[in-house]
Amino acid sequence: MSDPASLNPITPDPASAGGGEDGTVAIVSLYQSQKKIYARAVSGLFATWRWALVWATQILFYGLPWLMWNGRQAVLLDLGSRRFYIGGLVLYPQDFIYLTALLIISAYALFLFTAVAGRLWCGYACPQTVYTEIFMWVELKIQGDRAQRMKLDEGPWNFNRVWRTAAKQSAWIAMGLWTGFTFVGYFTPIRTLAQEASQLGFGPWEWFWILFYGFATYGNAGYMREQVCKYMCPYARFQSAMFDRDTLIISYDTERGEPRGSRSRKADPKQLGLGSCIDCGLCVQVCPTGIDIRKGLQYECIGCAACIDVCDGIMDKMAYPKGLIRYATENSLAEHLSWRDIVRRVMRPRVMIYTAILVAICTAFVVSIALRSPFRVDVVRDRASLARIVDDGRIENIYRLQVMNATEQLQRYRVSVSGLPGIALADVPDLEVKPAEARWVTLGVQVAPEAAAQAGAGAHPIEFQIERVDPLVDASATVRVQEKSTFIVPR
């Protein structure tokens, strides 16, 4: 097969192509394969904080589906029956407003944290960061630290490399599948899922989501890693819109660190004309995205603070003050502000506005949940039979009521109707709805012919009252829901 390039040869002009005087042409590729990043392990204050959040988030994610509440899974998003159980709450699709509120709260919290201290979410709690940290720990334990991994990858495929690679891949695949299994366990009762797993008896959708989510975890945390943060995550692109010169960011103190240069521990940097940076390059080696923080703030920085930990360790060894790389603001570096001044400027108007809005939304959300009615009602008028004349010349409309019990106890309800003179239900049943059940009931609403004639032909507004009947509850605690509809009087 012919080379595609030979089918349409192009002879570039050496001058326009940036070539040399001897006629050689410099060809610049628009696409370049990414060099693999071998991040060095690091310990320190911020690494401890990262691992604390890794443990907290993963105990919550993996452990929550196994908790029980009232004989059922504490958190279960049952899509089949359209019930969402969260602790003592039973939510229906009609409660979608609460999910909207949670998304708004999350967005404002992200705006607030970013305005205060940059990419805190990315560096400490983002699932991509958390799982990458876990997968890198597995890699560290099986294949060794940075130098050992580089040597292993550059060496031949001998027994040592084969078994270490196989062990790492097996561990990664197991973690990915367990993550996918746990994810599906939020939608299918996880104990049922565990029984199915013992026999590999998953349904088709369970197979799909376990494998899909497991593969996504394996691929993102094991291979793509920083590529997700740099190219796939939109947050890296619009974060600058939320930064200003008083935002706390991970910064290299150029005035103190430059000029760089290696020296012995006993040497006086002032006599050598050097700054505090010994140019060891460890801040680059520990960076999970492979950037050099000494070049200033870059969009690839996820705010993990690994460079701060490793640099503080070097400063200790050199007997220099810590903080060559630290959380600071652009104004504090330029104006040599004290920490008190930095904190004072952090609490600026935009931060206060974000905080006030976030507190208001959270308060409204909590109050709404606390005052939420223990049942919901939808009223649908039967369009197949708009109106009919029954015994005694009464006009009757047919309605369908859906009563949704949002508690986990048996509930009884009484229905009444108002809005027109003499309007009444054809029968007045007390509805009984089982725990967390939605029940449809058909009701006939009738109006005497005299009242219908007085009201006139057309659609007239009426209102249904649905009242919870519970003899054990005080009358003052009665819960009542009102739903509007229309009554049709034919011509």
How would you sum up this structure, described in words?
With 491 residues, the chain is an alpha+beta fold. It has two domains: 38-372, no CATH class; 375-489, Immunoglobulin-like. Helices cover 43% and strands 18% of the residues. Helix 3 (96-117) packs antiparallel against helix 18 (349-370) and helix 5 (127-143) crosses helix 9. The termini are far apart.
Sheet/helix structural class: alpha+beta
Count of beta strands: 16
Strand content: 15-25%
Q: Which radius of gyration do the C-alpha atoms yield?
A: 33 Å
The mean pLDDT is 88
Q: Helical segment tally?
A: 19
Please describe the biggest sheet, giving its number of strands, its sense, and whether it closes into a barrel. 5 strands, antiparallel
Percent in helix = 40-55%
Instruction: Tell me, briefly, the overall form.
Output: elongated
Amino- and carboxy-terminal Cα gap: 83 Å
Low-confidence stretches: 1-18
Number of domains: 2
Secondary structure elements and their pairing?
Layout: H1 4-7, H2 45-63, E1 68-69, E2 72-73, E3 75-78, E4 83-86, E5 89-91, H3 96-117, H4 120-125, H5 127-143, H6 146-154, H7 159-184, H8 190-198, H9 204-224, H10 226-232, H11 235-238, E6 249-252, H12 254-257, H13 269-272, H14 282-285, H15 306-317, E7 325-328, H16 330-335, H17 339-346, H18 349-370, E8 375-381, E9 388-389, E10 395-405, E11 411-418, E12 424-425, E13 430-433, E14 438-447, H19 449-455, E15 458-469, E16 480-489
Antiparallel strand pairs: 1-2, 3-4, 4-5, 6-7, 8-10, 9-10, 10-14, 11-13, 11-15, 12-14, 15-16
Helix pairs in contact: 2-5, 3-18, 5-7, 5-9, 7-9
